[in-house]
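> run fold GOLD domain-containing protein
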Amino acid sequence: MRCKCIYVCRSSSDLNSTEDSDELIGSVQDAEICLLKSGEMTLSVPFSVEDVVQFGDKSRELFIRSSCYSVILITATHPGLTISWVFSSEPKSIAFSVVYRENLDTPPEQAKVLIPLTRCNSHKETIQGQLKVRNSGEYTLIFDNSFSRFLSKKVQYRLSIEKPEVDNGSDCSS
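> ok
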């Protein structure tokens, strides 16, 4: 299964739901903000764009204790980049979200949820996604295990950054 942006781990029945989308988005955003404000964080891993570019195809691990969450912070200084991720979890599922803030001093209440918190069966299949950086700032990838009272999780992940291609007009014929 390949997941992209807003539709990470959503089934086709979720996408065709007749629920009022404004009401749904408001309640989902509250979940991420509440988690960032009052949840217990296991680990926060900050990366710059240059750090992620240097990863290459290397896989990394993130440990999330039961009833907690962990985050990967990516500081993007230029719009136009594409942040991509691939992850799987052991021994069971993990919830995933992406939140944007102008900087680390921005209060969680002012964060913008780019991908709503969604529980992913990443223990059964690899989850892939990407988003386009529209504004410079902090992009926070949240791996949430707060729903699990007893099981800690290990997330294997790969990140990549694609820089925009600059069209110099060399392919134009005269």
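Residues 1-29 have pLDDT under 50 and may be disordered.
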